[in-house]
Amino acid sequence: MSRLTISMPDQMNEWVESQIAAGRYGNVSEYFRDLVRRDQERREAAVAELRTMLERAEASGVSDRTFPDILEAARREARQKGLLRDEN
């Protein structure tokens, strides 16, 4: 097993220590292993979701819409969701 030394602000260290004191983790190493494990799982899930989206896109075939049509539809949808202002 590898050994790792990290530095963090006091406030973060206090948070980690409070998690241990609350019984959520047995020690600092357990806390950080859990963080790394969760990050790995989150990234793997994101990659799986992207793969699924790509597979669906490929299976849907080639669109007969032009690029400007697709771009305008995307802008309309973004405006409706409040992700894009009207001037864009």
From TrEMBL:
This protein's UniProt keywords: Toxin-antitoxin system
Q: What is this protein called?
A: Type II toxin-antitoxin system ParD family antitoxin
CDD domains from the xrefs?
A: RHH_NikR_HicB-like
Domain of life of the source: Bacteria
Share an example GO biological-process annotation for this protein. regulation of DNA-templated transcription
Q: Which Pfam families match?
A: ParD_antitoxin (PF03693)
The record's section on NCBIfam families has:
antidote_CC2985 (TIGR02606)
Similarity remark: Belongs to the ParD antitoxin family.
Q: Which InterPro entries match?
A: ParD, ParD_sf, Ribbon_hlx_hlx
